[in-house]
Amino acid sequence: MWEPGNTPEQDRFRKLREMSDSGISAYPNRVQRTHTVSQAIQTFEAAESSSETTEIQVTVCGRIVRQNLKGKVYFAHIEDGTGRVQLFVRIDHVGDEAYEAVKRYFDLGDFVQASGHMTRTRTGEISVLVHQITLLSKGLSPLPVIKEHVNEDGSVERYGEFSDTEERYRQRYADLAVNPETRSIFRKRALTVRALRHFLDEQDFLEVETPILQPIYGGAAARPFTTYHNQLHQDLFLRISFELYLKRLLVGMYDGVYEIGRDFRNEGVSFKHNPEFTQLEFYQAYTDYHGMMDVTERLVAYAAQQVTGSTTITFQGRTVDFTPPWNRITMREAIRQRCEIDYVEHPTADSLYQAIRAAGIEVSPNATWGKLVDHLLGTIVEPTLIQPTFILDYPRDISPLAKTVPDDKTHVERFEIFIGGMEVGNAFTELNDPLDQEARFAEMGKLYKDEDEEATPLDEDYLRAMRYGMPPCGGCGIGVDRLVMLFTDKSTIREVLLFPHLRER
């Protein structure tokens, strides 16, 4: 059983025992809230503006975030999820017994319920003149303290007992309780998802749900998490992508579908990677990757406007403008501009490897030709792409689900989205030829070893679906977490995940 550790916890635990011995519940079953804090304030302000003389009676609830006891008067600020208000408690209003309980038992962080009428103090602050006050939940551990210092350049430094970033992630509940900025991040995250959903709904896409547990993983180049179903005696995989299931639905005669949900990839953790993450994927019949570019840039610009109030934001000190149209450049040209290597002139992996090493760039000698090209993009080009940019036409051997570029057997109609120096999305003109798709699966199986994350298992059921006829289509996947990073100006994905994955202590 938990035992209080430090002196503040011991003091609060003592108060809890005293309340119990006195027959006072520190965790009552019932709450009688009539107004949120914001509703109470708005109702009072409306009455003031109309010169209404009737007292506004309220019962509000919240956490004590500030308190001050002055003889026979107790001031406290409480917060709920909507705002903050002052409680004005006088002994002659609540009575000796209730006031004594406030003095003896109330601490910062406790949740309370207060009934009274709205008023303004002599300093002009809107307050609740309390007639009855009750403890709703006793906090046994004091919340961490965050103090702030504003530098001359306007930047804010946080210090105090809860300034350790990793500890904030481990105790997100405490981080949210004491840090309004953190709460704001996750409101913006919710707004982002809402905006994406609203835009696609308005464009007549149908929101669907596809399996998270899949007998065959696919749709992306990533290592899956594996699990086992005991009754069915079957290995299953947590999905790495929604793609193959969503495209099955186009075979089933939906013209446009989308899903917002979790993907799981058994890969490294970094400032932009978490083992589980939120993805948006949408697919549309009778279009191609040019159509996907049009939808994508309008979608992201709309989301930026809804979440931040503008299509122009600041991300890590740089201005980013989401206004369409976005920059478009082929992968070949982007790499040629940044590192003066024309990879088309090096058609074998060995030749390209030698050219990359001659340019002073570190790279694995065992990489395939397509992976070498992708390495140049990721290490040299990606960090420079601050404004929203579509990089077009990728090597065929790292893109098994996209149609080949006409008259160019080495490239496919694929683009990736880069914003703020990181990749945010990926899209294709989807391959809808079942025979070509089967050949691609076989080719990938030979090209990559089983332990390689690029290995793509052959999904016979997906091929069966394609053989019924898949309409020409385009598809796009966007990392929602990275989009939220941009909208909230956060440099690491952990800041925009409520509970990021961390190593054991």
Would you spell out the secondary-structure blueprint of this structure?
Blueprint (H helix, E strand, L loop, with lengths): L6 H15 L15 H13 L7 E14 L2 E7 L4 E7 H4 L1 H10 L5 E10 L5 E12 L9 E4 L5 E4 L5 H6 L1 H7 L1 H23 L3 E2 L5 E2 L11 E4 L4 E5 L4 H9 L4 E9 L11 E10 L3 H20 L3 E4 L2 E4 L5 E4 H9 L9 H10 L10 H13 L7 E7 L8 E2 L2 E12 L2 E8 L4 H14 L12 H8 L5 E7 H9 L17
Parallel strand pairs: 3-5, 8-12, 16-17
Antiparallel strand pairs: 1-2, 1-4, 2-3, 4-5, 6-7, 9-11, 10-11, 12-13, 13-21, 14-15, 17-19, 18-19, 19-20, 20-21
List keywords for this structure.
505 residues, alpha+beta, OB fold (Dihydrolipoamide Acetyltransferase, E2P), 3 domains, 9-stranded mixed sheet, 5-stranded mixed beta barrel, 21 strands
